[in-house]
Amino acid sequence: MTFPEHRASHPRLWLRTQLRQRALLGALTALAVAASARPAPAQSTPEGQVTIEQHLDAELPLDLEFRNEAGNTVRLGDFFDGERPVIITPVYYRCPMLCGLELNGLVRSLRTLELSAGEDFQIVTFSIDPTERASLAEQKKKSMLAVYARPGAEAGWHFLTGDEQHVRPLCDALGFQTVYNEETGQYAHAAGIMVATPEGRLARYFYGVEFPPGDLRLALVEASENRIGGLADQVLLYCYLYDPTTGKYGLAIMNLVRAGGILTLTLLAVFVARMLWRERNVHKQTTAAAG
């Protein structure tokens, strides 16, 4: 086999040129394929329709009946004592992934708080699946309490199941939409929790499977109408406002401006009062010296 003269005299240059040409040809081919290919049309599925619609300040149907983890019939209103706020978590106990992530995220947040379930607030976890029974609720309660590891929490964290005629109205009141997939036997639903006032009104929503501890604490303090928490919480609530579009607390600029203005006026008043006091003392001393 014979080679052209430029290949024989400059073999490395020839090889680099060939590689560049092949790379360019490959890139052009890929672009042509991408340009000619049509993207698959997006399919609208029932699972894509689920969401959480906020019903802030709405009253919850406290007369609805459920079964607790022991299988006893309870009313939703049994967990609203007029003193402590309530965290509500809609899940289902056989959920393969999302519900577990949500509950674990809640526990991670709660473990960092000084406030405790059972003492400062209540938690109501209920199944959106009317076919689930108390035995599943009991298993889930044991596993979550083991992770939470907070004394007295067993009296403050309740795991409920219920029939369709009670589960559905509660989901509707919360704005929590679900779609059952008969093929998989699973529920499509969004992830989120709600905080309700001690009287049973929806106060705050949190989306996702991770809940910032600071935001959750502020929501509990605010929902309790300052029955729990301390002075520091009140200051934070003044500086931060709840944004329902994000489900988070944001810095309240106008409140900070007002606080800054009040502080400035206070310091100015103190300064003027001090100057007047000094001037009065100097005047008295001058009068005494002249007399």
Description:
The protein is an alpha+beta fold. Helix content is 44%, strand content 17%. It has one domain (47-251): 3-Layer(aba) Sandwich (Glutaredoxin). It is built from 8 helices and 11 strands. A 5-stranded mixed sheet has the order 5-4-3-8-9, sandwiched between helices. A two-stranded antiparallel sheet has the order 1-2. The longest helix has 38 residues, at 253-290. The protein is elongated.
Please describe the structure with a list of short key phrases separated by commas or semicolons.
Glutaredoxin, 5-stranded mixed sheet, elongated, two-stranded antiparallel sheet
How far from one another are the termini? Answer: 128 Å
Tally of individual helices = 8
Number of domains: 1
Q: How many E-type strands? A: 11
Secondary structure topology:
Blueprint: H1 5-9, H2 11-36, E1 65-67, E2 73-75, E3 86-91, H3 98-111, E4 122-127, H4 134-148, E5 157-160, H5 164-174, E6 178-181, E7 186-189, E8 192-196, E9 202-207, H6 213-223, H7 231-239, E10 240-243, E11 248-251, H8 253-290
Parallel strand pairs: 3-4, 4-5
Antiparallel strand pairs: 1-2, 3-8, 6-7, 8-9, 10-11
Helix pairs in contact: 6-7
